[in-house]
């Protein structure tokens, strides 16, 4: 038998969980059932296209078997199973996904407020390792689909694990937890009790769409014999009966009015490995040309890899509760790639290929509808819960701006209402519509000024005259902002205008003449400046855009100074 040590980081998480005074130890069951369900999903998906699997959809299940004498609880599934390598990889280390992210975020929170690790653990999926919160030994016996051999992984959760070959007749995984003995403070016996387990399944795993079954020990009254006399006393008998513990109705199939916010959030956190509740849930039940249900989430913060190549957008696609595609990218436009969730439509056949799927009309219709729904929901948030919307904007505003710039502005009409910029007048973030509603009668342009920060922009001499007029200026501090303004061009006939443009404030004939005269008079100074700076500037001229400021730099042509800086950075 081989004995191997856990990876250092796994060890740390283990210690943390086991030794925490964590009160919600019960979530271990939810975690193991969720893994079993994922494994079954994978094999069920294979079975759609591969006759070799030999199982029908109705054959898949997850079985719970408590044994009070041996003090064991077994969670079995007939899913895809794990090979020897997979057992070591998946259970010997804290793999990618939720767990690692969790660790990082936890470290970040630790530094911050010294918030206890303990709360955070309970808030989202911590995975397989949670088994060690209630077990002093865990044995995983697994046979992978397509493999003849089975392997057994055993660990006490303290110093590593052992691997040995073993026998297993069917494909799938059995996880045997040896439940800890009660201590004065902690009670573990309950995890061997049928009714407690049944309650836990109802509480956390009700929507799992494979049956979670348990052989329940029950008693009933014996039928009254026909010849029973007056003095017959009812007799009782014990019997065992398989019972399905979950209702198997996925959350998104239930009517909106019957789903509690708590349930939506729980589902989200567990499924997508987030520790924070989503900002918003959109639950759609569409009827008509294409019938579907969708449950979409707008996360409260960007995943750590969101602005990298690693991040992949997509929604899970189900057909009547059966997963047919894990990450369907075509359901989401790039500008809303932060959205997570599921779509379920019986209009898709179960064994449709990915290539075919992309070309179906239904998929396009659904994607189009979802795009509208997401926008409407964001607008609602913007209107009703501004703080939350600003949080959204902080996380994903950059994505919306890129969305405007993408595809030569094809999505600008859809996305422009979502934009927020800092307002000189309001001292906070405002929408373009809000800006428009405050525009002065005589105001010709929608003004903006670009710079590194709000503070720096506020000090730009070019902004003074415009603010004096009582006009509002949008302060642009992000790199794509000016490109966004350029691309939008105008809004209801009012052009976007940089405060640095020489025609930022329209002038009368009289003003024009005056300016020309001034230039004549000061020709010597201007020549001197130009001579001194040489090629560094194109020309020195009397500015029309300054008030108390002495000088300012402006760009020549449509490319502003900030944009020039940007181009120089990206392409020096
Ligand atoms: P996560 O579910 O977030 O990936 P877990 O710690 O819960 O993290 O599980 C780690 C991995 O172990 C899973 O991704 C899966 O590959 C594997 N695994 C766990 N339980 C099972 C199971 N019952 N059948 C097959 N694979 C499993
Ligand atoms: Mg898991």
UniProtKB/TrEMBL annotation:
Per the entry, what this protein does is:
Molecular chaperone. Has ATPase activity.
* Subcellular location as annotated: Cytoplasm
HAMAP family, A to Z = HSP90
**Region of interest: Disordered:** 499-520
Q: How does it assemble?
A: Homodimer.
Q: Where is the composition biased (Basic and acidic residues)?
A: 511-520
Mostly located where? Answer: cytoplasm
- CDD domains found in the cross-reference section: HATPase_Hsp90-like (cd16927)
Q: Which family does it belong to?
A: Belongs to the heat shock protein 90 family.
Protein's name in the database: Chaperone protein HtpG
- Enumerate the UniProt keywords alphabetically: ATP-binding, Chaperone, Cytoplasm, Nucleotide-binding, Stress response
Q: Which domain of life is it from?
A: Bacteria
InterPro entries given for it?
A: HATPase_C_sf, HATPase_dom, Heat_shock_protein_90_CS, HSP90_C, Hsp90_fam, Hsp90_N, Ribosomal_Su5_D2-typ_SF
Positions of the region A? 1-354
Domain (Histidine kinase/HSP90-like ATPase) spans 24-183
